[in-house]
Amino acid sequence: MEASRILRIGLAGCGTVGSGVVRLLSQQRQAITRRTGVDIQLARILVRNPDRDRGPEVPPQILSTKAADLLAPEIDVVVELLGGCDTAREVVLSAIRAGKHVVTANKALIAQHGAVVFAEAAHRNVSVAIEATCGGGVPVVGAIQRGLVANRIDALYGIVNGTCNFVLSEMLDTRKSYADALADAQRLGYAEADPALDVSGADSAHKLAVLAALAFASPIDLRRVRAEGIERIELADLIAGYEQGYVCKLLAIAERHGKSLALEVLPAFLDRSHPLAAVRGVFNGISLYGHAVGHTHYYGRGAGAGPTASAVLADIVDVAVGTAPRLPYPIPATGATAEGTSYQPLDELEARYYIRFQVQDRPGVLAEIARVFAEQRISLSALTQRDPHDETGRQIVPLVVTTHRARVGDIRAALGRMERIEAVARPPVAIRIVDTPEEA
Amino acid sequence: MEASRILRIGLAGCGTVGSGVVRLLSQQRQAITRRTGVDIQLARILVRNPDRDRGPEVPPQILSTKAADLLAPEIDVVVELLGGCDTAREVVLSAIRAGKHVVTANKALIAQHGAVVFAEAAHRNVSVAIEATCGGGVPVVGAIQRGLVANRIDALYGIVNGTCNFVLSEMLDTRKSYADALADAQRLGYAEADPALDVSGADSAHKLAVLAALAFASPIDLRRVRAEGIERIELADLIAGYEQGYVCKLLAIAERHGKSLALEVLPAFLDRSHPLAAVRGVFNGISLYGHAVGHTHYYGRGAGAGPTASAVLADIVDVAVGTAPRLPYPIPATGATAEGTSYQPLDELEARYYIRFQVQDRPGVLAEIARVFAEQRISLSALTQRDPHDETGRQIVPLVVTTHRARVGDIRAALGRMERIEAVARPPVAIRIVDTPEEA
After folding, report:
1. CB pair distance less than 8 Å for A299 and B32
2. Most buried of A361, B72, B226, B284, CB within 10 angstroms?
């Protein structure tokens, strides 16, 4: 098939993902033309350093350091791969105002400024395509926006951060400490030198905000996503859970409770038979529960040049052939613009918990801990004093507790009180035991 | 949002799936209008018996027994849910010729007459949307057509028949015979009274032809898909495999070998850690390996009124908002029209196999079997004579063999020869041990 039309791309950013897009486009350009009739051409690349050699696919004359060059009339689509929020926001908004479609992989930008970006896009009648913001190469945004469009989605459970999933998988599979597994992730390029955004759950919260806004067709205020990370998890916890039939994952959870939404990121124990439990290493997995379709699950690499470029290029093709959605879906936003959504008070939810204490091995400690649970109306289904798995020696022993269903607020209050007990050596580790939804 | 446009549907067929579509549309019509600006109205339903009461969502005056009524000028989209090939083909082709878009859930029709249908659709410039033909509610067609469009797909592994997957899961989980598990499937409505189309692998072959045509952008001749079913599998096989770390699935496999494609449906042992191994009961799962994205996997219910209606309605919405693909993707076809694709001779592939014989317990039998393997140049990695798990009594004992990698043609030839050995009581059961692709 001959190209019946040319689509010219302005690329903002040429780091790992940007170079991946350049490479993939150069590989697949002819195949895409054959399939779609559109010839996708790289017209301009915004970079910080124009002198660096970027290989044979990047002719030096299309490099530029001036953001305004992306607004040249011949450019049809601006692809934003800068990351961060400030410059990226400027680049995206000015592209939209210049009447250009936008493709972005920037989850922080969309999670925090989605309302502004999509309002401007609606006003200018252009598409903003965001497949690469969540789940890397997994086409989960498309699945929600189109494939499941006829469903009322009731729940979303996601493993959306490959770094955390690698660390947790590696700890259990090779019996490593958290620190060693994280160091491995850094050595393999799966974690940043500063891994805080990943291991704290903040990155997962960004993706959850975007996915939930699409799935529930509701504006989401990122500040209403409660996020907890994996920093406190120890190998002993993973082993203890595994022995009870659970696998620990950093889960991003969005659930409908009547007219309200509950949004959380937290380390959770999942039944080993759930498809999410089969998501290992740097892979991501997202389970969506629709009222008509039931449980569907999407799996793949959540990051990396190839997978992200795959999603970016799919969005470019969608824009090229005119099938990118320009629907009035509500899109996440922080602050005043994210009104109209009712949030379930997270402390009112009920759940079971695994809790591990490191306690001094002396009389009375157990009684003290038991009293706190009793006073917070939490009843226990199991209690084990385990052999110490860590470096603390024989004076400090681990005490592992599994609760019956209890109010999350009561669990949190109990944990706060425990931290202040002198015989409790460190803040307790609490992992929610998640009961994934029965299908309707 | 007010409806800015009305889309009128003519529905062909109002059985289980058709009623599901009517119900889901009536539930979600307002939400869809709010999201898309299009009001989807049911204008006409083609039925065999117009006198049957079809509930409050179906006004009797829109029922008709005349296929020609679907071609009335006010109808925009014909939704074909008749099943079968003859009438369905007529309905679909005349709708296209009348300039109407078509949505169909009919995998047999598309697998056998796709080339004709899509050629006509291209000629008339209308969309034919087929999400519901494969994987029920799982939006895997969309994932291939759009989400992975920038990839060269190298392999597809699918569990695409819920009946077979239920039978195999149920046998192992509850230690049932094949016959009992199949009877359960029939009682639960997961299998037809005549289950031949499912258990023989023919239904999986239809879906594989459609998915492979999309994934490889190649015409597929359904007759080049070699299909084997699960009829010979016994509980003893599933247990033996499980003990070696495998789960048995009826797999639909499409692989690229250089410029040729290999297409097969067959019972296969998969490593228990593969996401496909976590696909249980009536669920479906499809793994796609793209050169840029790596391994992605899609999971959900493969059949049933709700999931199929979810896919059908998603396609209707795509047509309604103008985002349904009208790309020149090659589409499967049988016979003379499916030219241009080179097929890998399946007997030239190499694989490991699990093989179980029922042999008479007397001297010389093992030597005879071993000689056949040797003459076919098949070397064995393990051989076990197991306790009999079945009704055959002590004179007939099971002999289980695991081969090293061998030419599939040699394995098949050996199996054929074994069947003619008098001391081999029944045709041997052979299950391929699948090594899923390492990602590039």
Report:
1. no
2. B284
